[in-house]
Amino acid sequence: MADNIIYEQPLNERIRTFLRLEFLFSRVENALASNDEINNRSAIDGLLSILSVFERSDLKAEIIKELERLITNLSALENSPGVNKSALDQLLGELDQTLDALHLTKTAIGQSLRDNEFLYAIRQRSSIAGGTCDFDLPAYHHWLQQTSDSDRRQQILAWTEQFSAVKSAIKLTMQLIRGSTGFKDFSANTGFYQHSLDSSQPTQLIRVKLPKKANYYPEISGGKHRFTVRFMQFDITQRPQQISDDVDFHLSCCVM
Q1: Cα(141)–Cα(32) distance, rounded to whole angstroms?
Q2: Going edge to edge, which strands form the sheet with 247-254?
Q3: What are the angstrom distances between the C-alpha of 165 and each of 59, 103, 108, 227?
Q4: Phi, psi of 187 (to 5 degrees)
Q5: How far is CA 59 from CA 20, 104, 170, 191, in A?
Q6: Among residues 123, 150, 188, 194, which is most buried (max CB within 10 A)?
């Protein structure tokens, strides 16, 4: 078990959406690790949440832009001293392959799931608290009870396959962004820290690492030019308060 907790704060809407999708893909994947009714329901809920995210904007175009930006930035490093050209070429190849897979997707991502009457009925009821009970959706109840565990799993995997190119793109993008900058040591005076950013190199993601045993957590807020970190005392019984002690912490400002 890790001895530290990493807290992340995106500084633009694109990375914010990528983190949400990363969370939802992980939720579906974890739910499919156990093949029972409760976990199948959780996987379906996660799948429908992913579908909802794609309805809010032209996310496919945003992902393509991000991959193209990463390819441009990494290609500029090819002739830099000390760069492992073999590793860089392999990484650029992965990015190109992922980009090609997205370009080959001609229809709107997840369109066949939107057109699926079975899933549509579940989506309609999911907005109501407890709305997917057996009596609300007898067809859903029938599928969960009558279909074999392996068949349900295969069906959910087939539905999630429509997002495979997006999942690969986001996994690779976040891996590169997180790995672009290492952690450095900083100190927050009386639990408060402010940091100015170089607007010529836009920061994508702020990461704060703290010991797991610490009884406080960071609240991070920021924009293009600066960000702040307030360390709050954790107390589940009352409103959080900023701690008064100085806090040593590890910080990474991911620019890639």
Answers
A1: 18
A2: 4-10, 205-211, 247-254, 184-188
A3: 12, 10, 13, 33
A4: -135, 135
A5: 12, 15, 11, 37
A6: 188
DSSP state of 142: H
Q: Which residues lie below 8 Å from residue 126, measured CB to CB, with a gap of 6+?
A: 45, 48, 132
Cα dihedral across residues 29, 34, 40, 42: positive or negative: negative
- pLDDT per position as a tens digit, 34-88: 888 999 999 999 999 999 998 876 888 888 998 998 888 888 877 777 677 888 8
Domains and CATH numbers, the chain: 13-179 (1.10.3900.10), 184-255 (2.60.440.10)
Query: Token digits for 197?
Result: 């950013």
Which of the 8 DSSP states describes residue 189? B
Contact assessment for residue 193 and residue 227, using Cβ atoms and an 8 Å cutoff: no
Once rounded to an integer, what is the mean pLDDT over residues 145-161? 93
Residue spans of beta strands (DSSP E) within 91-202:
184-188, 192-196
The separation between CA 186 and the C-alpha centre of its own chain, rounded to angstroms, equals 26
